Amino acid sequence: MINRIPSLDVSGLQPAPQIKGSASPVIKEEADPKDAVILTGSKPRAGLKASIDSLPEIIAGRIEEKEAKSSVLNTETTSVKHEKPPAVLTQMEESPSISELLGSDPITVLSAKPKVEGGIDVGPFEKKLQEELGSLSRIQNPWDINGLQGKVASIQELNDTFAEITADKSIPYEFLPDGCYARAHTAAQKYLDKGINCAKLYVMLDNIDWNNPSGFPDERFRAENKFTKGEWWYHVAPVVFAKDESGNTEGYVIDPAVNKDRPIKASEWIKAFWTEDFKVVFDTTHADIYEPQLEDFTNNQPREFSQKEFDKWMPEALKTNKEYGAELKQIKDSYYAHHPEEKPDRA
After folding, report:
1. Yes or no: is domain 45-337 CATH 3.90.1170.50?
2. I want to staple 313 with a disulfide (CB 3.0 to 4.6 A). Which of 255, 280, 290, 321 is the partner?
């Protein structure tokens, strides 16, 4: 479904007891709430899970998919070996190498590509964010969005819609172990419904070996609250461009899981769960993208937002929110049963 939350030592965590008939961990009666187990999620859901423990399975699945595509491609090319090579192969051979692109200024690469007419150019936003994050960060797929459509919000519009999102109890922002992709999707809809621009900002570990499921990285993003804590290989939230008090257009991240009080600048958002001592990569995408994208150095063209694609994922987002919301309720009920003095009037 992201202000610095201190990194956590989770090496000594033990699984918390289970509620009968449920896979949802709850806080032990005698435990400090900060020691709540990090949930990894036990049910397969559409979209890539963000929890770090899901990563080996995701890598294995992508390897299998890659091998299947390679097998099909080899079969097709063998059957037409006396004919002109398929266009896709020609395109790959003529495209810049990964090393060539990574050695270039991402914004230079972006400006060299065809642009979507009108809208907000996210290139300067990404370049500024990379400068604020420093040398351990880089931009992924800088060309995949350019010309973001929608009205540039005022600060009042930005904050009013943020208040609507935080008041929506169907979005379980206090459930940190997973589900950022679903929360981001449902939150984005509230801005899009008002005609306000909205993209998504993904931030990911940059040391993942996608060819080795056992190459488990030591690094991870971390966050915690009173009820849950999370360890992620990626995190995502909506980003909305609004005019600040000086009249400058700035990107603001919408993520009550990280800051429930206000929209925040992108660098503040990332530094809330990143310890700034390992490499990260970030990617600004259209709001219809439901999961982090692999780097694409062969199809380096900007794309347009698809309402049809956005709507396709909404049922899955609502389902995930509902399931994780139910798990969060169990955790909170258990916590308040042992800490009634902390229970608000309408917890």
Report:
1. no
2. 290
